[in-house]
Write a structure and sequence with these properties.
alpha+beta, transferase, about 325 residues, eleven-stranded antiparallel beta sheet, Diacylglycerol kinase family protein, 10 helices, Tumour Suppressor Smad4, 2 domains, five-stranded mixed beta sheet, NAD/diacylglycerol_kinase_sf, Rossmann fold, kinase activity
């Protein structure tokens, strides 16, 4: 979402505090708010991004990952009490990733859903028209919901390489590429999910034995204390979300924590498998043998192919996947 380091710094709009008239009558305790805005998010580009300035609100719209990290360091030094992200899932992913490098303890957060996909906002029940003012009011009223991000660590790194909410490997990478093409066609959120899912199924059902969708991806997986095993997987999904777009339930009943779905390759009984996977049920014994739902604490993965985290491609390698510390998100 934000251009990564090694590009020229270019920050649009300096972080600043806007001063205004004092409130009349009783007012909530002062809350210093820091807003990270993505001017390229779908709704911000379509409808324009209105930056109302109120007392104790800081705004910045960094255009590079390096500038984003610097803005967060400024917010941390000022002691913000609420970090607001105006953007979609990709913007939130980048902000959480940069914030993990800056904050010793993550501040409470809020999301203003303005991207092409807004999975966390859907999970939290954030309305489409939610504003920064709404987020501040919710925080002042103490309306928070906790969600722990999915963290991806490389090798023996001292900090996570990336933080997000929905990670996928194998067929999910190709499905995401299809979803991006549906975005170009004007389909977003649940509609994009449904269209890309339908096309993915068709590619798999009617592809030959050498079809990349059916062949799957070789992944060496070790969940918790289990012995590592190299598996040929059609799909691997991991998430800490409790509600998925368009009512999908790939991980089964809603629950907190890290959840993982794996589907073996080549997928057998795929057409019969779809309903139990999407509805959160088990299906017949023959169908259930082709996929597994688990709740691991930590997953060690080694793969050569790329994976997807909240819509972004990342190089494979020696990875550790786990849930990070819960973050408090302001909720409607």
């Amino acid at each position: 979402m934000f251009r990564r380091p090694d590009t020229a710094l270019d920050v649009v709009g300096e972080a600043r505090i806007a001063r205004g008239p004092a409130a009349i009558g009783p007012a909530p305790a002062p809350l210093l708010v820091g807003v990270i805005a993505n001017i390229r998010s779908h709704r911000n580009m379509k409808h324009g991004m209105r930056l109302d300035h109120w007392p104790d609100v800081l705004y910045t719209a960094p255009e590079t990952f390096e500038a984003l990290e610097e803005a967060l360091r400024d917010y941390a030094a000022r002691g913000i009490g609420l970090l607001v992200v105006n953007g979609g899932d990709g913007t939130l992913r980048d902000v959480m990733t940069a914030a993990a490098r800056v904050f010793d303890v993550m501040p409470p957060m809020a999301i203003i859903p303005s991207g092409k996909t807004n999975a966390l906002a859907l999970d939290l029940g954030i309305p489409e028209g939610w504003t920064v003012r709404d987020a501040i009011a919710a925080a002042q009223a103490g309306r928070f919901v906790e969600r722990a991000p999915v963290q991806v660590w490389r090798g023996d790194a001292a900090r996570p390489d990336a933080c997000g909410f929905l990670l996928g490997m194998g067929g999910f990478v190709r499905a995401t590429e299809l979803a991006q093409s549906t975005h170009r066609a004007g389909a977003f959120n649940g509609v994009a999910v449904a269209l890309s899912l339908g096309w993915s199924i068709a590619q798999t059902l009617f592809g030959g034995a050498g079809n990349a969708w059916r062949r799957g991806t070789a992944v060496r997986v070790q969940a918790d204390d289990e012995a590592p095993a190299t598996r040929q997987l059609y799909l691997l999904l991991a998430s800490t979300l409790e509600r998925m777009p368009v009512g999908l339930k790939p991980f089964g009943p809603a629950r907190a924590g890290l959840k993982m779905l794996t589907v073996n390759a080549p997928p057998r009984h795929l057409f019969r498998m779809l309903k139990p996977i999407l509805s959160g049920t088990t299906g017949s014994p023959a169908v259930a043998a082709g996929f597994a739902r688990t709740d691991p604490r930590t997953v060690r993965v080694q793969l050569d192919e790329a994976f997807i985290l909240d819509g972004e491609h990342y190089a494979g390698g020696d990875l550790t996947i786990r849930a990070g510390a819960p973050i408090r998100f302001a909720a409607a």
